[in-house]
Amino acid sequence: MPETTRWENTSSTRTSRMLTDILRRLPRIWADRARARKLAPRLPVLAGDVPLPSPEAMEAWILDLCTTPHRRPGTPEGHRAEGWVADRFRQLGLQDVTLDPIAIPVWTADRGTLSVAGLATPCFPVIHTAFTPAGGVQAPLAWVGTGTARDFDRTDVSGRIAVADVPFPRMPTGLLMKGLQACYHVSDPDGQIGLGTTQFLNFVRQNFIGGATSAEEAPAGDVYWQAVRRGALGVCLILRDQPGNSNTHYGPYDGILKPVPALWIGCDDGVALRQQARAGAVATMTLQGHVEPGTMHNVWGVLPGVSDEVILVTSHHDSPFQGAVEDGAGVAQVLAQAWAWSRVPRERRPRTLVFVVDAGHFHGSQGAHGFARSHPDLMARARILITLEHLGGKEVAGTRHGYVETGRPAFTVMFTSSEPTTIATVVRALTGFPARRTAAIPSDLLAPVPTSDASGYVAESGVPVISWIGCPYYLLDEHDTLDRVDFAELPRIARTVTELVRIQMALP
Length: 508
Known about the structure:
CATH class of the largest domain: Alpha Beta
Radius of gyration: 23 Å
Number of domains: 2
CATH architecture of the largest domain: 3-Layer(aba) Sandwich
CATH topology of the largest domain: Aminopeptidase
Largest sheet: 15 strands, mixed
Number of strands: 19
Helix content: 25-40%
CATH superfamily of the largest domain: Zn peptidases
Distance between the termini: 62 Å
Number of helices: 13
């Protein structure tokens, strides 16, 4: 059976399992939604106007933050971003602006190459994998499909370089949100979400999820760790579903150093590499770089209110590439709220606002986990966590030649805790200030905690959460550039966020 057909069958099975799990939960979701819709109109909202920064100011923040080619944790570029955020917080009048250090190993690749039969194949390093000797690793290639146990049983990879496909799953967004109504609320004022609406989840490499520290700990279907366990000297992974033959992919970003070198290969270059691997062609792969002790910093500040109960507003500053959408756009939304509420007199702020732009989303989300662990008293006073990521990105479709803009905003979700008042807050805000192509879903619909930067805070403290996040196709590759941001959309998003905060400010 052709590899593509086999994957599609496997992907269909996994999707069916996911949908079966969601189907079991539907009655509870529907009941929670009905209760929230009744409660939402009765929720209080803080009186008075809350001004917002101009579109030009929000655009300028993103342009300023995104002047470096990346903002990877622990690098000089990452440190510049941390200082920049701290300066903005001080300019906006936040108190006690602090940079909390977190020690990490900083992995830096200087050079990665792949040569087969004397011809170079373009490639990109798989982060946090082992470096090769200066002369590289020379060995026969071995094709292992998508890395199932059956694939490995058919092919001996010991002493070889394993070659495999890494596909992205496609989420049936429209079916889930508008068909099954597996959500608390759909905000789609333009009617752009249809039953056939889908999206690739490029952060979900189903056969290379990440998070494992050994072959024994890894899932049975993890292609990288299967190759390690069976004695492969290196791994080449083909990005079969990434458009335009791009080989830049920053994942898995678990921050775990891994024992065998690995390279990403673009989908078109992968066509020839598959054939060469089936034929057992000899290849030379190199991955040169260094690992050294380093530090990254969470940046946070306080806007005191009448009480010490806290509304926590967060995003992350690190990014694998230019990161205009991830997460220049998220940082801009946090700054917009700091700007807005700093212009509201303290006596009109019933609760204290704490703004955090954390580090290390791309290092196992250690910034979020670290903040919650380091500030238990603050987390205990947190009434709600509002996390803002990748908002205002443009939707793209993938073609053989790359990404093509569709003219629509990227689909976003609000991971929302099941507590009735939290759901009602979201329903009321999205009803009064509709967001485009957005669905509010249970915070644990896809995983025990939100699949967002909110996960660390929630896992460590159990804080109720509204985590608003977009997932455009280009997030983890070099195409997350300034032209991917719909700057005109940013104030509209900020207004919806402000309404979330106004409601939480007024709740008894």
